[in-house]
Amino acid sequence: MQQLITYVGNAVVEAVFPPKCDCGKWGKNICKDCLFKAIIYKTPLCPICGKISPQSKTCINCKNKSKLTGVMILGKHDGVLKKSIWRLKYGFNKTISKDLASMLVDKFGEGISKKRPVVTWVPETKKKLRSRGYNQSKEIAQHFADKLLLCSGRLLAKNTETKSQVGLKKRERLMNVTGSFDYVGPKEINNNIVLIIDDVYTTGATLEECAKVLRRAGYREIWAMVLTRD
User: Fold this and answer.
1) Of 195, 200, 208, 223, which one's alpha carbon is 20 to 30 angstroms from that of 216?
2) Pseudo-torsion of CA 117, 120, 121, 125, nearest 10°?
3) Which fold has domain 41-229?
């Protein structure tokens, strides 16, 4: 019943306020022409050293430098992807999260479906949630999980207000987020494969801290997926 109510509610909103692409075309948040212009990465790379690595796994040489099994990155932080993320985070266009999730499904859905991970997201503080009204990473993650019929849930919580990572150097980013996340998932883990979804990968400091907490909780295979690398 709740899903039906949500579906009807979304249909009414779209009828009254139809989506509009950044280029000015009505009907979709991201039109086909703009979608075609998105710079999508074709080669899977190790997120640490940038060398070719199957499924974007952290390669053997970098394994001891990361808590993450691998990081799947959709494309370059430029053009339509950059503008779409901005619209979601700062333009309060919550509905575009569904379009962005579809792009992730098209690129990574088949491989992830085989792994059957628990899907989660990078959490926000209560202050940030009150300001924006929603967590953009959670919106993308839930749409992604729903499309692939994967289990999703809140596994992490932000326990402190941190500075914005924008403009900080790598070391400063690491220090800024150290100890800022708590594990709030189930004590008994039935599936030790987890996928963390976020919007942008810069130095990887936030995702590394999330992975550190999840490894302590008992998860053994920790993947991350982001829209862009800045």
Assistant:
1) 200
2) -160
3) Rossmann fold (3.40.50)
Handedness of CA 4, 30, 140, 103 (dihedral sign): positive
pLDDT in tens, the chain (230 residues): 444 444 444 444 555 568 999 999 999 999 999 999 999 999 999 999 999 999 999 999 999 999 999 999 999 999 999 999 999 999 999 999 999 999 999 999 999 999 999 999 999 988 888 888 999 999 999 999 999 999 999 999 998 776 566 666 666 666 767 778 999 999 999 999 999 999 999 989 999 999 999 999 999 999 999 999 98
Domain ranges for the chain:
1-37, 41-229
Q: Please give the model's pTM, rounded to 2 decimal places.
A: 0.88
Distance from C-alpha of 145 to C-alpha of 152, rounded to nearest angstrom: 6
C-beta of residue 69 within 8 angstroms of C-beta of residue 204 = no
